[in-house]
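help with this:

***
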Amino acid sequence: MIFEEAKYAKEKMNEVLRKKLILSKSLTKADLKALGLANDGGEEDPCLPQEWFCSIQIGDWEEVEVIVHGNHQQPDDQFLLIAEAIFAQFPRHLQQTFRYLKTFFPHLEESDYELSTVTIGHFFTFEGSRLPGFTLAFIYGDYPEAFQYKVKFKADGWPMGFEGGPL
């Protein structure tokens, strides 16, 4: 599949994200009780990063959720710079992603993948190291047989691995 650079180039993505990102707020114990939910654990671990998110169009994919890690005041500047670099070379990352997935799932068609989420932040390796990077998450297939595949990259764009499974 050939990806046209002009379709994916986002000028000043750093500025676009700063204007659109909103803080994802976790539910408190009071929220959970008011909703009548069985799990009253509430309040996320304070060590976990806060997530900032928005929805944008990327190429032919509409409503792609972009998540950027940060704190309760703002998205992390380091991750906004990574976002700028990612979107400047997005066609290259898509080609790497599909080449990578093709080695594990040769029978799946690239045109049937739907980009759902781009996440930019810290990720853990199997060895327990914490690295800055990003993931591209795709949904393949229709419900109820749909699968989600996430390809993880280091901040420099080098693939680190993938996760996959049924939705």
